[in-house]
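As a warm-up, study this chain.
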Amino acid sequence: MPIEDILINLLQSNLPLVLLALLLIILVVKGVKIVPQSEQHVVERFGRLRAVMGPGINMIVPFIDKIAHKISILERQLPTASQDAITRDNVLLQVDTSVFYRIIEPEKTVYRIRDIDSAIATTVAGIVRAEIGKMDLDEVQSNRTALITTIKLLVEDAVDNWGIEVTRAEILDVNLDAATRAAMMQQLNAERARRAQVTEAEGKKRAVELAADAELYASEQTAKARRVLADAEAYATQVVATAIGENGLEAAQYQIALKQVEALNALGAGAGNQTIVVPAQALEAFGDAFKLLKGRLMLVDYLTFWWVWVSIALLLGLIEILLPGNIFLGFALGALAMVPVVFLLPEAGTSLLLAAFAGLSLLCWIALRLVFRKQSSGARIVTRDINEG
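Now compare it with the structure written out below.
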């Protein structure tokens, strides 16, 4: 028996059951709906809203209920829109905006507005123009964050009845016309020039202040130095006056004689080669200096003894070692030369011995100066010959 005949006999004998099974399959397919996580479905019954199905498995009445709209609940971005706006200070701007939103109540979005994207774009354009018209250009540039927040709140209030949640509103760019840009550039350059001038002026002012402070400090230090010098001079004058008051005119004469001897030493150490200038009263200066010591130093009473002159020569030689300058060496040689004088003139007086010592010391000093000058000249000649060779 053919297979076709067998199938036909089975269908004829079980036709009601087969029809019932087909009906059940159709009812399951039509009544059970699976909604994705990113969507919500609007169900209508005889053209009227019945329910909104969320993600997962949902049941409807087959052939009576139908899914009229499938709404995505993902966040959406409107295309970037450009609109012209005029600020409060009459500057024309071209503002690029973008809005992010998502549908949270599909039934309102479906039955209250036809083109949701166009409606939101129109609302945003009107709000942006209105808000920018309340602000100056500088405020638009500096308070962009506050402007974005205000636009977002106003758009949320306007689209609340449409079942929409505005998540973000952005001002992407604010463009100016060429004339306004040029004017702003001039203003910016002027502001920079003003700041540079202010900085330069402050620098000059600070420099003048510092210079004045430096001059004041220098004046104070100079005044202090002068005060110290004046105190030192006053102290020296007081000491000299006290010495003159205690010792009489002899102290002043002794100081003058010492100054004459110091001037003679300085004159002999000059830059001359062979010329030596001897003051006319040099012998008197040496004599006066030692004469004034009489009564002060008891050494003058022992000038007739040879060992005194040897001691004086040793003392002056030690001073010459400590303070080299040839003048003390001349006195030392003069003191040594006085030893044979004491032996030859045992009865000579103190004044004569002092005068002889002064003369011998001066002659020794002059001889030393000539010797040292000649040695220095010879050394220079030898050095020059070596350099030329």
